[in-house]
Design brief:
There is one protein chain. This protein folds into two domains: 113 residues, Winged helix-like DNA-binding domain superfamily/Winged helix DNA-binding domain (Arc Repressor Mutant, subunit A, Orthogonal Bundle); 67 residues, no CATH class. About 2% of the residues have low confidence. Helices cover 53% and strands 5% of the residues. The chain is mainly alpha-helical. Helix 1 crosses helix 2 and helix 6 packs parallel to helix 8. A two-stranded antiparallel ribbon has the order 1-2.
Length: 215
């Protein structure tokens, strides 16, 4: 019953939920369109379910899952600062996360290219954990679109891509949209990643399907 909408018959026995009452007079005009409200609910339930799945797969936090996924799919020996930018964490938070991942045997730190920075490298157990994260996320998302007929899925993806492009931010942004993406899916999709393509056009950068842009 937890997912029944307020005011529905399914919630009548649950105290504390507001129900329609004709004595209350007309409702105020909503401050959001129905379409936007549905998108918000969809985004929330997908985020909740995906976060639960990837966190369980990583055996840690959502940030740990995102770090493992990014290291598997598109980060190649990143510096601690680049990983911080991708994840949207503070410097100290990133260091603490790496400490936990290293203690779990998932990553190791090595000297960076300039001899002063530190590079983050995925270990073999970390690779297996990252693959589990990818599979857990995929299961949630594939289950979500399973209700759509096959003929509608490409159209849904195209519309979702337009929304993503509209929310794109500029270079240097933190907490990358693609931090949990399976980049192989971008390479396999017709036209590639809509956000990566839009960023390449906007900032006149050479598009690289395997090198996501901060957005």
């Amino acid at each position: 019953m937890a997912d029944a909408p307020p005011g529905s018959r399914a919630d009548e026995a649950q105290p504390g939920l507001r129900r329609d009452d004709p004595r209350a007079g007309p409702r105020p005009e909503p401050g959001i369109s129905g379409a936007a409200n549905v998108v918000g609910a969809l985004a929330l339930v997908l985020a909740d379910q995906a976060a639960d799945a990837v966190t369980a797969a990583a055996g840690g936090s959502a940030s740990a899952a995102a770090a493992l996924s990014a290291l598997l799919h598109f980060l190649d020996r990143p510096s601690v600062d680049l990983l911080r930018q991708v994840l949207g964490l503070t410097s100290s938070g990133t260091v603490r996360l790496l400490d936990r991942l290293q203690a779990s045997g998932y990553v190791r730190r090595e000297p960076g290219q300039d001899g002063r920075s530190t590079a983050v490298v995925l270990t073999e157990p970390g690779r297996r954990a990252a693959e589990n994260v990818t599979a857990a996320r995929a299961a949630v998302l594939e289950r979500a679109i399973a209700v759509l007929p096959e003929r509608d899925r490409d159209r849904f993806a195209a519309l979702a891509g337009q929304v993503l492009v509209g929310m794109m931010r500029g270079p240097g942004a933190s907490r990358w949209i693609c931090r949990l993406c399976d980049i192989g899916a971008c390479r396999g999709a017709d036209g590639g990643c809509p956000v990566g393509n839009a960023a390449s056009r906007r900032y006149q950068l050479a598009p690289k399907a395997s090198s996501p842009l901060p957005a």
